[in-house]
UniProtKB/TrEMBL annotation:
GO molecular function: hydrolase activity; metal ion binding
Peptidase M20 dimerisation domain boundaries: 188-314
Gene3D superfamilies with a match to the protein in the record: 3.30.70.360, Zn peptidases
Keyword Metal-binding part of the UniProt annotation: yes
Matches recorded under InterPro entries: Bact_exopeptidase_dim_dom (IPR036264), Peptidase_M20 (IPR002933), Peptidase_M20_dimer (IPR011650), Peptidase_M20A (IPR050072)
Name of the molecule in the record: M20/M25/M40 family metallo-hydrolase
Keyword field: Hydrolase, Metal-binding
Keyword presence, Metal-binding: yes
Length: 422
């Protein structure tokens, strides 16, 4: 690995310390909602203080603080490690293990063990090794530990970006991107269109439906029209995105089959999320409402698709768009210094192929790329995020710590190209 031997040796012997750090993080319940992360931010800040690492808080909601920490480096560039302090909620009755932390052999259980307090523990241990050995990293290391990620809340990363406190050249988000023996780095996310459709009709008795216009029927026909017009139409993808799609298909093929994996990225996905309407079983409904989730591969221009969706809805009798929100997918080129450096570092550490793939949704990576910070997601872990008895492994913790500590050296050698403008 690119990591100097003394640091690598030090980290390799810190398995128990990694587990203890993770158990400390898991012991603080940061379920969101309500998403109160103050106690955990206090504990992490105290860790950095003991290491002599400078910290700063960015607070838009006192219950949901964001913590920044900086370790100055030799070079002029900055690598940002980003993670979130909050977790999804848990139902203790569904757990056989302690949702606030329990170790059993090579496994560490708890809500957030893999999403993403496990990767956070690895980041903290990587920082500790630099500080405790007096090693100056080759690039400045910044840590942004944010709140409210699980509900995409404004008090989290958006507040940090709005405050102008991040000026990184690269970012790695510690979201778990590897399950089982398959390794991947997430280099892209999808764009989205969320449509709320409303239908109006005319009422009639359920025994004489021909005398009315059924709003639910109208609404469902509109949904099927949208699916037939857009759901089968392939994207015209830029070659750089097409290359990401090919690796994404290869990554997902074992779990969903080649055809489904390819359709997931080469065509829009259209999901009918909610449908409501009508007042009684024996009445023809006069109103109905549906919410559609449309996802678009990075590189597809969401405003153009939205304009066509509006035209399509305008052709459907009795249908109007009541609300809409949208985003544009983002990506990192496969030959960028960040993607190359992370991929090579992970491959060196694991000895496995590393897929450079798109996510099927979008999150904080999109926010950072849109702010001009090249960003990928990576962490070793398990496929148990958000599940009962969520867990990670000691091997995953150790591997993440080694990779996060080694990456600055790889980037210092490979990251000489100018920052990409977004």
């Amino acid at each position: 690995m690119a990591l100097p031997e003394p640091l690598q040796t030090e980290l390799s012997g810190r398995a128990d310390a990694l587990v203890e750090t993770l158990l400390d993080l898991l012991a603080v319940d940061t379920s969101n909602p309500p998403g109160e992360t103050g106690a955990l931010a206090d504990a992490v800040e105290a860790r950095f203080d003991r290491l002599g690492v400078e910290t700063e808080r960015v607070v838009a909601d006192p219950a949901k603080p964001n913590l920044l920490a900086t370790i100055p480096g030799d070079g002029p560039r900055t690598l940002l490690y980003n993670g979130h302090l909050d977790t999804v909620p848990y139902d203790e009755r569904a757990w056989e293990r302690d949702p606030l932390g329990e170790r059993d052999g090579d496994r560490v259980y708890g809500r957030g063990a893999t999403d993403m307090k496990g990767p956070l523990a690895a980041m903290l241990e990587a920082a500790a090794v630099y500080a405790e050995t007096g090693t100056t990293p080759p690039v400045t290391l910044q840590f942004a530990l944010v709140s409210d990620e699980e509900v995409a809340g404004d008090p989290g990363l958006p507040a940090v970006l709005d405050a102008g406190r991040l000026d990184a050249d690269w970012c790695v988000i510690g979201e778990t991107t590897c399950g089982g023996e398959r390794r991947s780095v997430t280099v892209a996310d999808k764009g989205s269109v969320w449509l709320t459709l409303e239908a109006t009709g005319s009422g009639a008795h359920g025994s004489r439906p021909i005398l009315g216009d059924n709003a639910i029927d109208r609404l469902y026909r509109a949904v099927e029209t949208i699916r037939s017009r857009f759901g089968t139409e392939p994207f015209d993808l830029d070659p750089a995105v097409a290359a990401i799609v090919e690796e994404s298909v290869s990554y997902y093929e074992p779990t969903m089959g080649e055809t489904a994996a390819r359709d997931l990225f080469t065509r829009p996905t259209i999901s009918l999320g909610t449908l409501s309407g009508g007042e009684s079983v024996n009445s023809v409904p006069v109103s109905a409402r549906a919410e559609l989730d449309v996802r678009l591969t990075a590189g597809v221009q969401t405003p153009d698709v939205l304009a066509r969706l509006r035209d399509c809805v305008a052709d459907c009798e009795g249908i109007e768009i009541a609300d809409v929100s949208w985003s544009v997918g983002t990506y990192e080129p496969l030959d960028s210094p960040l993607v190359s450096s992370v991929t090579e570092t992970v491959a060196d550490a694991t000895g496995d192929r590393v897929f450079r793939r798109s996510a099927t949704g979008g999150g904080d990576a999109k926010k950072l790329r849109n702010a001009g910070v090249p960003t990928v997601e990576f962490a070793l872990g398990t496929d148990t995020a958000h599940a009962a008895d969520e867990y990670t492994t000691v091997d995953a913790l150790r591997g993440n710590a080694l990779i996060y500590a080694a990456l600055p050296y790889r980037l210092a050698g490979d990251g000489d190209s100018p920052r990409q403008e977004r």
